[in-house]
């Protein structure tokens, strides 16, 4: 077993996904099959191989530090599920 | 021939010579949509009023004697993964059911400035995760060749829309084959450009190091025309490359004398339907008849592509999809007790199963204790696969293979077996890992269903890739259409 139901619960918590018990059971089985297949790459010898994060060479791109165009507050808030006084409203945190 | 059946280059001539108006063209395409959409179900949103307003605008330009570009007045569908200002953009997900973007993605903006008439937004697998469009949060799209079969995915709606003549061309996105695979299954041309050639600004991110926007068209000429207007550096996408824009239509030469074509033996091995292999072998003969030198080559590490991809893509997705939290846009559960409860239930109710699977896979592969074994190792395997391609491209101008291991499969056939579904992208995924351009062109049928030939180019080698695809298309003379 590459992944247990306990692992699935932990990963779902890290990813902020509420799962029912039947979902945990189903996903554990499916993820196990996928991870078993994906885990085959562990067999490859990659001791002297550099990792690739991007297929093209990338470097930091910097721009001049000046104000550009940006969204007006009412535009930025246009899709908010709940807004008030130019702010996104969320349930109480503390 | 009805107007909706024609290509961009044919319609452009008719518009310029005033044989037809943009309004007549839009009427033709929308009457086709009225006729077949109920059966095919390509569109999540149809933008009829906006389309006719735009067609009017183009007609006024033509009437006033203004020169119009090759895309002006052409009815175009856009995959619902690209932001369009003021027009609902769902990404195929319930979590974005009510999302109205406040800006337009650069690729779409480039085409709108060229005068396209946008017909609507097409169905897709949720967040572009899937190979059949069955993972859409809304409905299943059908393959115009056989309504009981899938159109492929994730850009299934953008493929079916062109195959069913519900738009003249469309845009899709390709992370592991999501343009080329559905193009093959629907019998049309689909192309993924070199990573970085087309700006990803405004493309809702799935796996940022792999995603690329590209066109679905009826022929290779149209593909080159669209590509001309799609590309270019964008200040809003730091991964977009700075190059002098070529005119890709100049690459459309029907002659392959002296061109070398490699056929990776691993992509003609077991796992590929023997009937598909036979169709591809005929295509290879045709390429030889056109003057190309065709030989077998090898990409020894390519068998590990699927494994590496299903670690890298979900890892990037788990990070990209963290933004869907119910705070700034999209769905939010109405009765959350506290912030954590809001996050957990908003995401549980808003995302479908495949998206949840990939978020969990990626989170697992990046989590403490597993990072080196999965994500770190997958990134190294990515290097090995790129090295394989580089070695092959030292000897060959392009590589060719089948686009897919099978023709379109039945709706429901693979929904309960994620790994079986993933295997349908086995020929296309390596190309994304290496950031290369790839195109699928129709090359025949098996049991009445279309087969695609994949041509893979070098980095920024779109011109040679298009030349080979064009030359093949001209001598093959594909004219079959689905009967709807």
Automatic annotation (TrEMBL), chain A:
This is Aspartyl/glutamyl-tRNA(Asn/Gln) amidotransferase subunit C. It comes from Candidatus Aquicultor primus. Belongs to the GatC family. The lineage of its organism: Bacteria, Bacillati, Actinomycetota, Candidatus Aquicultoria, Candidatus Aquicultorales. The gene is gatC. Keywords: ATP-binding, Ligase, Nucleotide-binding, Protein biosynthesis, Transferase. It comes from the Bacteria. Its EC number is 6.3.5.-. Heterotrimer of A, B and C subunits. InterPro entries: Asp/Glu-ADT_sf_sub_c, GatC. The keyword Lipoprotein does not apply. Allows the formation of correctly charged Asn-tRNA(Asn) or Gln-tRNA(Gln) through the transamidation of misacylated Asp-tRNA(Asn) or Glu-tRNA(Gln) in organisms which lack either or both of asparaginyl-tRNA or glutaminyl-tRNA synthetases. The reaction takes place in the presence of glutamine and ATP through an activated phospho-Asp-tRNA(Asn) or phospho-Glu-tRNA(Gln). GO terms for molecular function: asparaginyl-tRNA synthase (glutamine-hydrolyzing) activity; ATP binding; glutaminyl-tRNA synthase (glutamine-hydrolyzing) activity; transferase activity.
From TrEMBL, chain B:
PROSITE patterns: AMIDASES. Its EC number is 6.3.5.7. SUPFAM superfamilies: Amidase signature (AS) enzymes. One of its GO terms (molecular function) is ATP binding. GO terms for biological process: translation. The keyword Nucleotide-binding applies. Heterotrimer of A, B and C subunits. This is Glutamyl-tRNA(Gln) amidotransferase subunit A. It comes from Candidatus Aquicultor primus.
């Amino acid at each position: 077993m590459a992944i247990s139901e306990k692992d699935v619960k932990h990963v779902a918590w890290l990813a902020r996904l509420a799962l029912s018990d039947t979902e945990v059971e189903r996903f554990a089985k499916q993820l196990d099959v996928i991870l078993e297949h994906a885990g085959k790459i562990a067999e490859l010898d990659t001791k002297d191989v550099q990792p690739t994060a991007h297929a093209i060479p990338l470097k930091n791109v910097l721009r001049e530090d000046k104000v550009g165009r940006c969204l007006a507050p009412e535009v930025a808030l246009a899709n908010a599920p709940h807004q008030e006084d130019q702010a996104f409203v969320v349930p109480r945190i503390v | 021939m009805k107007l909706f059946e024609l290509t961009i280059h044919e319609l452009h001539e008719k518009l310029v010579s005033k044989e037809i108006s943009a309004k007549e063209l839009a009427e033709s395409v929308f009457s086709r949509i009225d006729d077949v959409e109920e059966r095919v179900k390509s569109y999540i949103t149809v933008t009829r009023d906006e389309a006719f307003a735009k067609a009017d605008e183009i007609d006024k330009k033509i009437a006033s004697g203004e020169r119009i570009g090759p895309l002006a007045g052409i009815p175009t569908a856009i995959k619902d993964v690209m932001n369009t200002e003021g027009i609902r953009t769902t990404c195929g997900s319930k979590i974005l059911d009510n999302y109205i973007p406040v800006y337009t993605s650069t690729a779409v903006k480039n085409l709108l400035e060229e005068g396209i008439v946008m017909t609507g937004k097409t169905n897709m697998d949720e967040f572009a995760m899937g190979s059949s469009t069955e993972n859409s949060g809304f409905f299943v799209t059908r393959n115009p060749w056989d309504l009981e079969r899938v159109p492929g995915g994730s850009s299934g709606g953008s493929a079916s829309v062109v195959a069913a003549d519900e738009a003249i061309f469309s845009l899709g996105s390709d992370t592991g084959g999501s343009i080329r695979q559905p193009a093959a299954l629907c019998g049309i041309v689909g192309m993924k450009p070199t990573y970085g050639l087309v700006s990803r600004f405004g493309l809702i991110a799935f796996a940022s190091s792999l995603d690329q926007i590209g066109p679905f068209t009826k022929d290779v000429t149209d593909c080159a025309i669209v590509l001309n207007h799609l590309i270019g550096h964008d200040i809003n996408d730091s991964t977009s490359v700075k190059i002098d824009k070529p005119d890709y239509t100049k690459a459309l030469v029907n002659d392959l004398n002296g061109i070398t074509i490699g056929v990776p033996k691993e992509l003609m091995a077991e796992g590929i339907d023997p009937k598909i292999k036979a169709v591809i072998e005929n295509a290879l003969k045709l390429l030889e008849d056109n003057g190309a030198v065709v030989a077998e080559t090898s990409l020894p590490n390519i068998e590990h592509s699927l494994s590496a991809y299903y670690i890298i893509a979900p890892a990037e997705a788990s990070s990209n999809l963290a933004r869907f939290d119910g705070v700034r846009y999209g769905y939010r559960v109405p009765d959350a007790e506290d912030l954590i409860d809001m996050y957990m239930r908003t995401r549980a109710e808003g995302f479908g199963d495949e998206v949840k699977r990939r978020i969990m896979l990626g989170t697992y592969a990046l989590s403490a204790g597993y990072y080196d074994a999965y994500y770190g190792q997958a990134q190294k395997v990515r290097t090995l696969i790129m090295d394989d391609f580089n070695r092959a491209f030292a000897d060959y101008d392009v590589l060719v293979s089948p686009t897919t291991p099978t023709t379109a499969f039945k709706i429901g056939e693979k929904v309960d077996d994620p790994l079986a579904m993933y295997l349908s992208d086995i020929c296309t995924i390596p190309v994304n890992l290496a950031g290369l351009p790839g195109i699928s062109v129709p090359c025949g049928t098996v049991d009445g269903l279309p087969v695609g030939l994949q041509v893979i180019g070098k980095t920024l080698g779109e011109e040679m890739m298009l030349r080979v695809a064009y030359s093949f298309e001209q001598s093959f003379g594909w004219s079959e259409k689905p009967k709807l």
